[in-house]
């Protein structure tokens, strides 16, 4: 049975698109046919992070409007042939999406794909609402600072009351916490909320901590999801997250300051 | 499938009867003035429209019959239905009232008040207090919330409100009765919102943005350090909020 995963946060700039690209790639690399959809109509970014911006012909809005078929719009990833990208339109705005249209496309995708990752735009308006509405699982991306945490909390409230599962009284969306841009040194200095602080405020299952890392920026600039950079700490953190999501039991890393073997092996930030 | 089930008819039952107890609001009437009943009932519903929307209801005529006040059951049922409630039973009615209800598909509940049903003439004159019409909705149940109340969410309970998880900053919980939070209370909590000064707030970890009982409130800044992050109860004494350890 296909599962729809929404990557959401409320706040902007916390790493939703980076996370969407990484986990979609991670799931595909594990052998699951995966589609990743950019819901950020008007501010499309996912295609850049996935390195397929020069292959975009048709987009999400074209498919909704019936101007192109789903197969025409889906772009196969150059690194993994089980991964497909449905890019957003850059020339339209979020009003071009309709609940009915999104539902139809997701239904169609569910027939072919095991996982459908929805990269939500920031905010709690229409785009973000449609990205989460049909979800089965939600990855809440949060930075360790108060405004991000509060926005995540707001988003969790919306997931539990405004989603399709909530409206139809089905089993609620499974919610997972991803703490990104985490820096143990700064937590120690009291400049950043700790994992425990964030978990206490959100009381949510922690799927993984992604350390603040130069490799994320490098990966974005080069258009390869950071999870493919197996030597980087962020890449490994995302690999752990995908494995945990799929049911593997892996200990959490990157929560404490880097010391010893890891520090030596993988260098500084 | 149909052939299967036909064959199995005698072996695997497709239904069974179970006994369940439900908590249903009971409308106790003390006046037979249909217009006043409608007005006051409308007023009550207006206080908590979500709670009453399509709510099942049993109406109780015991008090009326005690004082020999007759009421047109058909008219009463029409009023209740018109206001969006679903009458599911009559209690304490006289024989002819029960008959009327039955004809409209409303079951008769025996309950504690069958004694009056035989039309005995106990008193010739109604007691003075019965003249003041005051329909009441009794048997309000507590609302139980088991999941965290997130920022931006609002919960309103027409009775007591019990929350078994945290209430996040930016969330708002309101109850006409008491509020219990068995988790961190970080949002706003308003008890006795309809003016019940006896209402209290109980929480196992006070970090609230605002607490209020019957309109008397304190904001986070007014809370002193001794009560913050503590399990406390909050109640009203001489129009002042008192915060005490539990």
TrEMBL record, chain A:
Residues engaged in binding ATP: 11-18
Protein name listed in UniProt: Septum site-determining protein MinD
CobQ/CobB/MinD/ParA nucleotide binding domain ranges (all copies): 5-226
Cellular component GO terms, alphabetical: cytoplasmic side of plasma membrane; cytosol
Any one GO biological process: division septum assembly
Family statement: Belongs to the ParA family. MinD subfamily.
SUPFAM superfamilies (UniProt xref): P-loop containing nucleoside triphosphate hydrolases
Organism: Methylobacter tundripaludum
Pfam families per UniProt: CbiA
Subunit structure: Interacts with MinC and FtsZ.
Keywords: ATP-binding, Cell cycle, Cell division, Nucleotide-binding, Septation
Stated role: ATPase required for the correct placement of the division site. Cell division inhibitors MinC and MinD act in concert to form an inhibitor capable of blocking formation of the polar Z ring septums. Rapidly oscillates between the poles of the cell to destabilize FtsZ filaments that have formed before they mature into polar Z rings.
Gene3D superfamilies linked to this entry: P-loop containing nucleotide triphosphate hydrolases
From TrEMBL, chain B:
Septum formation inhibitor MinC N-terminal domain residues: 15-87
Composition bias type Polar residues, residue spans: 111-122
Gene3D superfamilies listed in its UniProt record: 2.160.20.70, 3.30.70.260
Name of the molecule in the record: Probable septum site-determining protein MinC
Gene name of the encoded protein: minC
Keywords recorded for this protein, A-Z: Cell cycle, Cell division, Septation
Keyword Nucleotidyltransferase carried by entry: no
GO biological process entries: cell morphogenesis; division septum assembly; regulation of cell division; regulation of cell septum assembly
Organism per entry: Methylobacter tundripaludum (strain ATCC BAA-1195 / DSM 17260 / SV96)
């Amino acid at each position: 049975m296909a599962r729809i995963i929404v990557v959401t946060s409320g706040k902007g700039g916390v790493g939703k698109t980076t996370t969407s690209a990484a986990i979609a790639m991670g799931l595909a690399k594990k052998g699951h046919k995966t589609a990743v959809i950019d819901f950020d109509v008007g501010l499309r970014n996912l295609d850049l992070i996935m390195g397929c911006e020069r292959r975009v012909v048709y987009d999400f809005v074209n498919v909704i409007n019936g101007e192109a078929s789903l197969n025409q719009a889906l772009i196969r990833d150059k690194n993994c042939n089980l991964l497909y990208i449905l890019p957003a339109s850059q020339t339209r705005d979020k009003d071009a999406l309709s609940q009915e249209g999104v539902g139809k496309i997701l239904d169609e995708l569910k027939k072919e794909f095991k996982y459908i990752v929805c990269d939500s735009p920031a905010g709690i308006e229409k785009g973000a609402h449609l990205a989460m509405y049909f979800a089965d699982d939600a990855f809440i991306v949060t930075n360790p600072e108060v405004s991000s945490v509060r926005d995540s909390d707001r988003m969790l409230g919306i997931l539990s009351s405004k989603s399709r599962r909530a409206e139809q009284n089905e089993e609620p969306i499974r919610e997972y916490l991803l703490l990104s841009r985490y820096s143990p040194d700064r937590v120690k200095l009291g400049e950043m909320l700790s994992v425990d602080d964030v978990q206490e405020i959100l009381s949510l299952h922690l799927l993984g901590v992604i350390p603040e890392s130069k490799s994320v920026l490098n990966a974005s600039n080069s258009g390869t999801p950071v999870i493919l950079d197996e030597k980087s700490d962020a890449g490994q953190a995302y690999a752990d997250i995908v494995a945990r999501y799929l049911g593997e039991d892996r200990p959490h890393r990157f929560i404490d300051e880097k010391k010893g073997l890891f520090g030596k092996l993988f260098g500084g930030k | 499938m149909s052939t299967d089930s036909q064959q199995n008819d005698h072996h695997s039952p497709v239904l069974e009867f179970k006994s369940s107890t439900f908590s249903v609001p009971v409308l106790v009437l003390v006046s037979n003035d249909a217009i006043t009943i409608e007005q006051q009932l409308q007023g009550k519903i207006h206080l908590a429209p979500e709670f009453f929307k399509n709510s099942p209801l049993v109406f109780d005529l015991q008090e009326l019959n005690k004082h020999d006040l007759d009421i047109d059951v058909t008219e009463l049922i029409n009023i209740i239905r018109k206001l969006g409630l679903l009458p599911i039973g009559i209690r304490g009615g006289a024989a002819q009232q029960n008959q009327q209800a039955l004809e409209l598909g409303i079951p008769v509940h025996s309950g504690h008040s069958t004694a009056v049903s035989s039309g005995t003439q106990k008193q010739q004159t109604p007691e003075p207090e019965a003249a003041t019409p005051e329909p009441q909705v009794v048997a309000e149940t507590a609302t139980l919330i088991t999941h965290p109340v997130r920022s931006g969410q609002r919960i309103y309970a027409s009775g007591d409100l019990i929350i078994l998880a945290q209430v996040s900053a930016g969330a708002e919980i309101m109850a006409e009765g008491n509020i219990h939070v068995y988790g961190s209370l970080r949002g706003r909590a308003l008890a006795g919102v309809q003016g019940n000064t006896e209402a209290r707030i109980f929480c196992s970890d006070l970090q609230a943005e605002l607490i209020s009982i019957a309109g008397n409130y304190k904001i986070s800044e007014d809370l002193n350090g001794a009560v913050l992050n503590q399990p406390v109860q909050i109640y009203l004494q001489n129009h002042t909020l008192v915060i005490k350890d539990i």
